[in-house]
């Protein structure tokens, strides 16, 4: 072995000792290579977990610590109060209102988003001229900053001077009270979210559609299935894993919605009656408006728990769907 | 790297400056407009303001006087936005501008953290401002955390053309005479106007009008020791009911929320005919009502004089250029400069010398039908007889109140009684 040779050569006359040493060396280098095999994979994936520990786990635990104290944004740590902050926010009508708003905006944005994205993807999947142009085109809204989107839509959805209401009154309908009526404000905010994310999801669906083997379609055509039938009986079932992926990412994003709702009016608190205050905005109001970091952290943790519950539900449902898909 | 070198050089220059005020730096001759010496090292100073401070031209002037200084202006749309920004960055410990403009309503919150702001007290500026202006920015230990900029003595801005159309007197003196008296008189005049105005409202928003009224109350939300009694204060509830009666039941309000898109658009669409206007509001009106003719301002304010807002410049201690920043703040708030800001955007001075200056007294505003705004606002300032107490929770409580008014006046999601209940809950949750 090369290693032993090299170790021995400087001490050609040294009898036993070098041999022992070389055995040791051998053992050590063997050990190293054993460690290498065993530990390297973990080392290679460790950057993610180290990063997660720093940017995910630590804040999570620190937030829990903060939530158990009186904690002022600027003044810092105060007395330990146990679960008082949680008790307080759970008793607040604004908290439950924010939970309702969050889910309402989430549903109004995610459901149409997925449906429209699949439809757009199906169109883009067809033989179009200048295909790349159209495909890139649907991504344009995604590169516009959310706050800029907010400003533009704000103008469109202004109650008295907005373009949308002017069009509505122009065709003889009543203007919608976008900033007063709770559901209308949710719809307006969901429109902003959809504007931004639909194209992005459409591209993901498009990629998945192109991975569907063409011979399945050929077989379907021979069996006499029309375009529509092919779409619902071939394309959509084949997209199932992708749909699940998109739904999960949309859920996580949807429950944390902030930018669009915050820029929906000047004050950024979600309306005078908190018509469109989401949970993340409530965290903002408590932490930065009232400077009560303890309570803000308590809400942050409650939001975390809600997301965990939803993610578990998601997991169970998707497992069912996946196994059903397997059986067919 | 370059930045660090620059900062080091700069702090060297700053130290040099502090040690020997006359010995180093050669900028003295070229900078006749500035007292004392300036450093010669290049320095970029950022200045955070909101609404209209009227500083745009002054910055250019200062840069010309001090070729080594570059000023970066960060302008927030509203006072709320500026407060959010300030709070976040104070908590983060970095990211604040070298000079931050703050408003009197949230000054008390900041006085609780005097370490965050440089003590700007200086024999050179003693007696520069009205006493109450300086007192409000002074900590218990005597540190001065902000230099006063403007004050907000209020008059009534009105649309002379719309008054005329509705058959009301429209020249300044008659309007002042008509509106002189209590708030009820102001609202009664409104009823007369609305009856003949063909859909134009009397004032813009319940919230804005309430603001004018509450600033005449000595202790609105808190006792002098900081105890919150906002929800038990009969005076507050009275004003709340009175303003909503006028806004909703008598329909005198244009049902707008201040600073929203609809409110801004309302200036262009003749949505309302009067607006309570502190000096700094003149610039805002002029900007929003660009191209509209007929605005004027009357030397009158219902219910006695009133002061709304007014700001300060602070130098956060997290900044790297505190010495230069202090110098700029000092220069900007000197009477001569404040008068220029007043000429530009109507921000009425809080500096004693400025109040007495002929330039101020002779100031007219072309947009407001050449009204002698200097004279009018000086007379309005003299009419202010109450300095309201504003404690650490003033801003948050007042914000909750503004939302209570918006719910009834603009959103119509609540009536006065149910919205008051929500206000009580919101104050209880602070």
From TrEMBL, chain A:
It is a multi-pass membrane protein. CDD domains: TM_PBP2. Pfam families: BPD_transp_1. Belongs to the binding-protein-dependent transport system permease family. PROSITE patterns: ABC_TM1 (PS50928). One of its GO terms (biological process) is transmembrane transport. The chain crosses the membrane at residues 42-65, 103-124, 136-157, 238-258, 298-318. Residues 1-20 are annotated as: Disordered. Coiled coil: none annotated. Residues 99-314 form the ABC transmembrane type-1 domain. GO terms for cellular component: plasma membrane. The keyword Cell membrane applies. InterPro entries: ABC_transporter_permease (IPR051393), MetI-like (IPR000515), MetI-like_sf (IPR035906). SUPFAM superfamilies: MetI-like. It is found in: Cell membrane. This is ABC transporter permease. It comes from Arthrobacter pityocampae. Residues 1-11 have a biased composition (Polar residues). Keywords: Cell membrane, Membrane, Transmembrane, Transmembrane helix, Transport.
UniProtKB/TrEMBL annotation, chain B:
InterPro entries: Bact_solute-bd_prot1, SBP. It comes from Arthrobacter pityocampae. This is ABC transporter substrate-binding protein. Residues 1-25 form the signal peptide. Keywords: Signal.
